[in-house]
Amino acid sequence: MNRWVAGVTAGIVVLFLAGSAQVSADDAERDDRLFQQLGGMGGIDLIVEELLLEISRDLRIVEHFAQTNIERFRRLLVEQICDISGGPCDYSGDSMERVHGGMGITEAEFNALVENLITAMDTARVPLAAQNRLLRELAEMRPDIIHQ
Fold first, then answer.
1. How far, in Å, CA of 14 to CA of 23, rounded?
2. pLDDT (mean) for 55-71
3. Distances in whole angstroms, Cα of residue 90 to Cα of each of 19, 74, 79
4. Separation between Cα atoms, residue 123 and residue 112, nearest integer Å
């Protein structure tokens, strides 16, 4: 895929999450430029909705979501992207290691989800620089997600 940059295999498998959104007391001190480039809460909502549609059509990974409470998952994914991008949210779900431990997620499945996220961000018209920045932020989670 020619759009991949270093770190594109980001820890996007943030899709097995739990929790709810909270507003942080130190929001005023956050760098929210990425949050704004993603389109704020409306943009993140759109990205997540598009991502869920992509996942639902992707036979490579959809089975991992068969027992997922999609509404809860959606809320947590929005929360996590909002938090990571400097928005007014604090991610309250479990760690990626705890959530993904024992799932046996492969490198190929991880990459499939990243492809789906890129497609979702393209559909939401997120600028390429902002896409790459978000993917870099999420890449730190990768070692806690892939368990072959």
1. 20
2. 93
3. 10, 15, 7
4. 17
Q: Of 148, 147, 107, 141, whose CA–CA distance to 15 is shortest?
A: 141
Its pTM stands at: 0.77
**Contact between residue 91 and residue 83 where contact means Cβ atoms under 8 Å apart:** yes
Cβ(113)–Cβ(148) under 8 Å?
no
| Run of H or E residues at 118 | helix 107-123
Give the whole-angstrom CA distance, residue 21 versus residue 95: 15
* pLDDT above 90: residue 103: no
**Percentage above 70 pLDDT, the chain:** 77
Count of beta carbons in the 10 Å neighbourhood of residue 112: 20
pLDDT at 3 exceeding the cut of 50: no
- Please report the pLDDT score of residue 30 as a whole number: 67
Q: Which of 86, 87, 89, 77 is nearest to 141 (CA)?
A: 77
